[in-house]
Amino acid sequence: MPELAISLRGAVKRYGPITAVDGLDLEVPMGTCVGLLGPNGAGKSTTMRLLTAQSIADEGEIEVLGFKLPGESKQARAQLGVAPQLDNLDTTLTVEQNLLVFAHLYRIPRHERKDAIERAIVMAKLVERRDSKVDKLSGGMRRRLLIARALIHRPRLILLDEPTVGLDPQVRQELWALIDALRSEGTTILMSTHYIEEAQRLADTVLIMSHGKAVAAGPPSDLVVEHAGHEVLEVYGSPARLAEVEAEAREAGLRTRRTGTSVSILNVDGFKGFEGVRRAANLEDVFVLLTGEEIA
Amino acid sequence: MAATAARPPRIGRLERSALTGVLVREVVNYSSYWKSSTFSSTVEPTIYLLAFGFGFGSLVSSIGGMDYVDFVGTGTVATAVLFSSAFPGMFGTFVKYQFQRTYDAILAAPVDTEELVSAEAIWIATRAGVYGCVPMIVAMFFGLDPAWGMLAVPFLGWIGGFGWANFGIAIAGFSKSFENFNYIVSAVLTPLFLLAGSFFPLSEFPTWAKVLAQLNPLHWLVMLIRDCVILGWHSEDWLRLAALILFGIVMWRIAIYAMTRKLVD
């Protein structure tokens, strides 16, 4: 078994004048959960498509589960599960029929098919709804089915592209529990997200992407400490006051970022000088600091 | 995969399990829409058959030694094959990649575009082969005599349907929007449909039209079916059969090329 489930080296993908992925290096060790964090348009979905060879890289080397892409992508896809960002279930089919189709597409042997479908229905918590057509399911149910469908053949690696985008907070937490359970069972996960909290909670390692490049990588807590320190001071005031605060903080050698109505002064551990609200530093601070972009 | 053509061949092209996977999806889906699909595929040619049969049939009783009902009954088989293959090829394919994103899901599984297109075309061709028999069966109620050659009709329909299904898939692959289909229907399918000799003989047509008809796969299919069911197999039918098979193979490769361009970027 390869040590790395995924390895990208210098991957480049261009669409005409746009470079969606621009020399990306990415490693996903077996048994870990890696989060690709970045705003819309950072190249996360293109990266996901490169891994299934639905996009072919212009440059760079890509290996998935030890198979070189795109030449051996079919072998890789056989051992890989994909839950796309856009729901592509067959809406006129029932829950069970959707799973049956994918049990065939993923070549589950006949004698194991029934059990595999059963397991997926239980995992998606759709036992009562197994005969419901997909277009009668709620958004959360559909997303659970989408993930269960990707797991029907017990893949060693699963790609989750924005697994909770557009869902209610409560449904999102249900899905987090599902993903966390997968992680504890040892399934390797590559998950893209633009929700900071999602990456912080679920990912062992986060890779921050901006304009098709990796700008930082590491465990979420290390990234926070390294780039934003332990504490952040939020100073509120008039625009003029905020400008003053920024200038003073910069003079004192501190980094700042604007967050709408306030200025956040980063890495203020032990520093005294401004009136404000102290809070723990988070990944969003790191992200804005590193990319200059607001997220989500 | 056009982009990887220069690389060493992939292991396992056109694998049976991949084709089966795509076919299972179609068969399961068919269980939810077979009624409407069967209705339109059988009622439409039947209406043609009745309209031409009663309309023209009152003016002409026989064409080239055939009863007009027999003539039009066999001719409509090819029309039914065309309708039940080219249209699902175009519209079905477009809907599946554009609106339902079904093909994105399938290509994330161990299925290549070549296998996806092949399985879809096999499925459409099979339906077309079956639906194509309907007008012939209806015509039997109006006096078409049973013949052993009728047993060949679903297979001929399958071959023609495979070509037209791939034609439709290729058009869907090359088209950026639904509107493009209007051009194809008006400028390609309608003329081919009228220049096939399904409803009236082409013998009175100007020479250029007759030459064009000789290049029309639908015409080959009409002649093959008529010969199998009524007139008996001629030596030039071998040529027509070979041409129809070649049409299917060429369209199949074009469809794979078009869909690979569309689905893999």
Structural commentary:
The complex is a heterodimer of chains A (296) and B (265). Helix content of chain A is 35%, strand content 28%. The longest helix of chain A has 16 residues, at 169-184. Chain A is built from 10 helices and 14 strands. By secondary structure, chain A is an alpha/beta fold. Chain A has helices at residues 44-51, 73-78, 95-105, 110-123, 139-150, 169-184, 196-202, 220-228, 239-251, 283-291, and strands spanning 4-15, 18-29, 33-37, 59-64, 67-69, 80-83, 157-161, 188-193, 205-210, 213-218, 231-236, 256-259, 262-265, 277-280. Chain A has 2 domains: 4-219, Rossmann fold (3-Layer(aba) Sandwich); 230-280, Alpha-Beta Plaits, CATH 3.30.70. In chain A, strand 7 (157-161), helix 6 and strand 8 (188-193) form a beta-alpha-beta unit. Chain B has one domain (14-263). Chain B is 74% helix and 2% strand. Chain B has 10 helices and 2 strands; from the N terminus they run H-E-E-H-H-H-H-H-H-H-H-H. Chain B has a two-stranded antiparallel ribbon with strand order 1-2. In chain B, helix 1 packs across helix 2 (68-99), helix 1 (16-55) runs parallel beside helix 5 (133-141) and helix 9 (217-231) runs antiparallel to helix 10. Mean pLDDT of chain B is 90; it is low at 1-10. Chains A and B meet through helix 2 and helix 3 of A and helix 1 and helix 3 of B.
